[in-house]
Structures are given as structure tokens and as C-alpha cells.
Amino acid sequence: MNIFESNHDLEEKEQALSQQVHALEVTRKRYYFAQLAARIKDPDTYAVLNWSFIGGFHHLYLGRYGLFLGEIFLLIVAITTISLGITSGWFIIGLLVLFELPQLFFSQKIVRQYNYSVSTKILCEAREKPLVEQ
């Protein structure tokens, strides 16, 4: 995900994807929209998880397990070092805050990019999957 991608570029990609979806045959469209409804994420939920819970739980929402584990590990290290009186724990906390703030401020774009990626994968599935008309 690139938080510096322009909104215009993202909108163009989403529009092109939408045109490809509308070109699908009816059965494949049904599959696409059923899968999309099940797998798409809400930007507000991501932002609330980022704002409310310390430790990167918003990464779990998007399935970024490595980032979550890295952040929770650093948070545990920071809390442990602070509780032992070592001031470098505050430095780790500061780094975590600097890493998380852009994710909070750009949460709408991050989730739009995630949803675009998921939508593209679903479109590929819909094109390749042998579907039976119902």
C-alpha cells in the first residue's frame, strides 16, 4: 500500500475495475458481488481500531499478521523496558507512534487500496472460475 498514491490515480484504477466488472456476464457478476460483500473492509472500522487499541490490532483487520506481530512485540519490549526503568522504551514508543500516525490519518486511502486489491483478485477469480447458470 502506498499512502502517497494520488486519489486521482486510485479513482482511475477503481473506475477501470468497475468497467471490467460491468462487462462480465451475469453469473460471474453475481459471484463477484457476493464475494465482494463478504471480503470488503470498512475504512471507519480500520480507523477506530487504529485509534482505540494500541498494539496494531488494525493490522489484523486487514490480514497483515506480520505487521501486527512486529508491533505487538515492540510494544511489549517497550513496556518491559520502561517498567525496568530503562528509558529506551520511550524511544520505541515514539517510533511506534511515528509509524502509526500516518496510518491513522490515511486510513481511508489505505482501506480503499486494500479493497481495490481484493476486488481485483475477486475479478480474476470470477473470470477463471467455472460457473453454472442458476
TrEMBL record:
Keywords: Membrane, Transmembrane, Transmembrane helix
Membrane-crossing residue ranges in chain numbering: 72-99
Organism superkingdom: Bacteria
Protein name (record): TM2 domain-containing protein
Source species of the chain: Vibrio eleionomae
